[in-house]
Design goal:
Mean pLDDT: 88
Number of strands: 14
Oligomer: single chain
Largest sheet: 6 strands, mixed
Strand content: 35-45%
Strand order of the largest sheet: 9-6-11-4-3-14
Radius of gyration: 18 Å
Structural class: mainly beta
Shape: globular
Order of helices and strands: HHHEEEEEEEEEEEEEEH
Length: 241
């Protein structure tokens, strides 16, 4: 496919940038300039760019380049993940939430994560470790608050790093909402990057700090899958075919 066609859609431009940043320089963390580049690309993206109609069925597409078939935000009755792309170095996907849904406190081991709230509003709590003990069967430690407040779209793309930026966080959807996520590297049980969940215990004498203790996967956490209906993404593997 010609380069002008490949860069025609915003999701293709995001894939190309992620491939350049995370696959071409996998031996080091991305630079400030590279993070700024990705944030700028994600800042321009809307729900329709990944095949989601935030206004409900029947609304006309805003561009002939965007797909006629889209997933309606009104159809989301449980937390739903839309897989856009995943390789060894990064993943791109969208989490859709109905109002009132909560994604419990979890971490992102060794990851850089960029998140763009595509529509709606959500309450976010995020922490970073101050001191952590991983010598026992379950991780436990002291964590400091990074964010405790409401995010409303449109808002800035957020970034978290392996040890900063709010690597451990949870969400509660105040309205129907969706988050576009880029993770590098992706979760992998086999490679020692599982998703770990935590309970939080506030410290009354130490405002802004909590004790976090590892927990089992919450029994009430249910994440459905939905097909990606956005513009096609041409990958490096496709180019080699």
């Amino acid at each position: 496919m010609a380069m002008e066609d490949r860069t025609r859609t915003k999701v293709q431009m995001l894939y190309d940038a992620c491939n350049e940043v995370f696959s071409s320089h996998k031996e080091r963390l991305p630079t400030f300039q590279q993070i700024h580049w990705l944030k700028t690309l994600m800042a321009s993206m809307e729900a329709v760019d990944v095949g989601i109609d935030k206004f409900g069925p029947g609304s006309p597409p805003s561009s002939p380049d965007w797909p006629k078939e889209q997933m309606s935000s009104l159809e989301v009755s449980k937390i739903t993940y839309i897989h856009v792309h995943e390789c060894d170095d990064f993943s791109i996907g969208v989490f859709c939430f109905p109002a009132g849904a909560t994604f419990p406190l979890h971490d992102h081991p060794g990851m850089t994560v960029l998140s763009k709230l595509l529509y709606g509003s959500m309450y976010v709590k995020a922490y970073d470790w101050v001191k952590v003990d991983e010598s026992n069967a379950r991780t436990i430690g002291l964590a400091g608050t990074v964010k405790d407040g409401v995010m409303r779209s449109p808002c800035e793309t957020s970034v978290l790093f392996p040890r900063s930026g709010g690597n451990i966080h949870c969400f509660t959807a105040l309205t129907p909402c969706a988050i576009l996520d880029v993770l590098s590297p992706p979760y992998s049980e086999e490679l020692g990057r599982p998703s770990t969940y935590f309970l939080e215990f506030p410290i009354p004498s130490l405002p802004g700090y909590v004790v976090l203790e590892e927990r089992d996967l919450p029994e009430d956490l249910e994440v459905a899958g939905a097909p990606y209906l956005g513009p096609p993404v041409v990958t490096v593997e496709d180019d080699l075919c």
